[in-house]
Each structure stands twice: as C-alpha cells, then as structure tokens.
Input
Amino acid sequence: MMNPRLPRRPLGVMCALALMALTSIAHAQWKWRDADGRTQYSDRPGSIRSRPRPFTSTRWTGASICSFIRSSRLVPPAMKRAPGRAASEPSSREKVERERKAQEDKARTEAMAENCRQAQNRQRMLESGVRLRSGTAGGESQPMTEQMRQDEIRQMQTVITANCK
Output
C-alpha cells in the first residue's frame, strides 16, 4: 500500500524552496539602479547619486502649455505653427486647405484604383466559368445560376467603368 501523504511531499518541498528563494528579496528595504542599469536590492540605501530624485512640480502658464504641446510628438507636424507666421494669414489657411484637398483626392484615387482592381479580378473569375456559390437572403449558400452570373458580370462592368479611368 502507498502512503497517501507521499504525493504531497514533493509539492511541499518545492513550495518551501520557492519561499526560501524569495526571502533574499523580501528582506531588502531599498531598490535602486546602479550605474550599469541593473536593479539592486539591499537592506542599506544606495549611493546618493543613484537614488531617485523626488518629483518636483512646475508651474504651468498658458504660454508654457502651448509651447509644450507644440513641441510634443503627440501633435502632428501639420498642426504645428511656424514661429514667425500667424495662423490667421490667408496664405497659410489656403495652403492648409490645398494640402487637405490633395490628401482627400489622393485617398479617393487610391480607393478607386483598389475598387477597379477588385472588380476586374471578380469579372475574370465570373467569366472563367468556375463553379461559384452565392448567399441567399436567409444566409444559406446555393450554387450560382447562369442568370445570377450574368447579372453580376453586368454589375462588375458598371463598377469598372465608374472606377477605372
């Protein structure tokens, strides 16, 4: 017969070893980083140079907040103002408006090119004669009939004429 306490003994020994390994850190009251960047634990404090400095609060004024926000990386470069130029000048507003329109036009042309490419690929697949399945209104899948294939080919042709220029 086996002793019922035997399987628990290795678990208890492992727990005791784990607790003993943690005691070296548990007695440490001080934690700091040395010159090499390694974290040190000790019951005595580190040198004065390695101790962290207390947080000092600075008074924020309206101008210092604005300069901090402009210099931070959170603000995109387009929103940062040039130091010698006011934002209310018509030329800078027109320039920003032109840049915005150019970005919108670029995004629109990229979307149209992607739609054109997808429609051409779909039309090639429909015209290849490969067996396809389509979904019904109820969410079920059914084989695509020849009439459904012709309707979708016509639809892809309209998408191609609208987007491929």
Q: What stands out?
A: The mean pLDDT is 77.
